[in-house]
User: Fold this.
Amino acid sequence: MTLTMQDNPLIPSQILDQITDKTCEGLALALASDDDGAVMYLQWCNKAFTKITGYQAKEVIGKRGTILIGSSMDQGSHLIIIEKLMNWEQFSLKTQNNRKNGEQYWQKMSWTPLLDMATGNRWWLCSLIELENRPDLQAEGKVPGLQRADRDLLTGYVEKIERLEKENKRLHELAKVVAKESKEDSLTGLSNRRHFEVELKSWIQDLQKTGRDFAVFYVDLDRFKSVNDTLGHDAGDRLLISVANMLRRLTSEADLIARIGGDEFVILRPLGSSALDISSLADAIVQEMHAPFAFEGKSTFCSASVGVAIANAQMEIPEQVVSDADMALYHAKSNGRGRWSFFTEEMHAEAITTKRLVSDLLIACEKREFIPHFQPVIDAATGKIAGAEVLARWVHPTMGLLSPASFLETATAMGILKRIDEIIFSYLPDALALFDSAGVDVPRLSTNASAGRLADPSLIHDIRRSGVDPKRLIIEILESVYLERIGDVVHWTLGELKEMGVAIALDDFGTGHASVQGLLKINPTVLKIDRQFILPIVDDATARALVTSIIGIGKSLGMKIVAEGVETEDHALFATEMGCDFLQGFYFGRPMSSKDLHLKLTENNGVFWSGHALR
Assistant:
C-alpha cells in the first residue's frame, strides 16, 4: 500500500514511498471491524516494522493484530491495549514485548484510528519505536502535572534527543574513516572501484575538452586462486599488497591505479608522445609477475595478464574503453596467459558476434529451438543396434542446423546448459516410443554430462522428471572432468545414478587426465576409446598396440569397450578383432533425427553391419 498526500500534489509519490521505507519508526496499517476496534487484520508494514518485530511483510499481512502481542508483555499492558482499541481511542504506551524469535525488547507502541471517508472503512495505524534501555516507569509516574499521554510524549522527546546525540557522535567519529574509505581500497591503499569510476568520468571529460588521449591497462592475476588454496588467504592478501606496490613503482604520479575487484587492477595513463610508454609498462608488469612469490618460507608462481586499450577523441563512446581493455585481457588469457594484448577492431567484431550469439541462445531456450539427434551404437558381435548417443542440435532460424561446436562454449559460460539439457531430455520419451514402434530393441540412449552438471544435485531430479526409464539411459562423462579431483557432490551424483539404474560411460578415454586410480573411483560400466586412437589402427601398428592396451585396462576392470570414430569397414573389423564390444562412427550413420533413425530401424530391422561374419 502506498501512502499519498492528495492535498499537496507538489510532493512526489516517490518521496512519500521513501519516507515509509527509510523511517526508523515501525509502521503498520490494519483494517478493523466496524463493531470492535480490537478485531483487525494487518494489511501493510514498512521495513522498519519488519526489522523491529522480526516478521517479514508476507508473514504479517492478513494476520490478526494479536501477532503483535508477545508472551513477555505484562497482562496490564495487554488489557489496556484491548480496552483502548475497543473504544477507538488514540493512545501510546511503553511495554516489554517479543520479536518473532522470542527475543525480549522494550518498545513504545502507539495506535491511531483512521477513517476512509470514501468507503467508510475503519483503520488503525500502529507505530513501534524500539527503546534502547528499559524505561524508568516509576520516575515517569512522579512527574507532576502531566497526564499519562503527556508524560509518554515528553519521555519520547527526551529519548529521541539522547539517541540522536549519541548517533551524531558516532557518525562524527566515523566521518573521517568514511571519507577515506570512499576513495581507497582498504587492503592495498589504491583507489577503489567507486573512486576509479569517478576519476574515469573526469578523464573522459578532459579528453572531450582538450583531446588528451589516455590508455587503460586492465591487469588480472592468472593463478590467484591457487595461491589462496595452497598458501592461505593471508598469503593472497600479501600478494595483492605486493602487486599494488609493484604497480606504484612502475607508474608515475600522473597515472591512476585502482583495485576494482578481488585480483583485478586498472591503470589510467596519459598517452605520451611515444607508444613505448604504453608497451613498456605492459611489458614490465608481465615480466615482474613472472618472478616467484614467497610467503613464510614457501614460494609459488602467479603470473599476470594485461589488456590495453586507448581512449581517443575520435571514439563515439569513450566510456567503452574499459570494456575494450577487458576484451584485450580476455584475448591475452585465451592465448596462454602471462602476456599482454592490445585491443583491436577484430576483437570488437568478435565481441559483437558473441553478444549476438548470447541473445540468440536466450531466445532459443525460450522457443525450445534445441532438438536431439541420434548416432547409432552397434553391437560388434551381432551387427545390431545396441543404443544411440544423443547429440544436441540447434535449429537456428537463419543459420539452419548447428552442432554444439558452434554454441557449446558460449552456452557453458552463460550457465544455460541445464536448460538445454531439459529441452533435449523432454524429447527422449517420445523418441524411445518411436524406436520401439519399429519393433527393434534400442536398449539405451547415452547423453553427455559436463563437470558442472555432475556437480549439480538437480541432475537426478531432472532425469526422474524427464519420464525416461533410467535403465534405458547412459550418462557419458568426459575424461576432462579430471577424475582424480572430482568432489563429493559428483561422487554422490554418480552413486545416485547407479542406484537408479543409469549406466555410466567414460567418454574420450586417453585424451585427458584419467588414470587407473581415477577409473576405480568412477567405476564406469562403459569405456569409450576416442576416435583419434581408432582412426589410425588400420595402417599403424603402434596405434593398434595403444588401443589394445586401453582395451586391456577396461576389460580387466569389467568394462564394456566402445570404439568411436569407426569410419570404414576396416576400422570396424580391426576394432572388433581387438576386442571392442561396441562400434560407433560415420560408417554406421551420422547423427540423425529420431524420424530418420526410426526409418533406418524399419528398413534394416536394426541390423547395421554384417561384416563381423567375415572374421
Residues 95 and 286 are 66 Å apart (CA to CA).
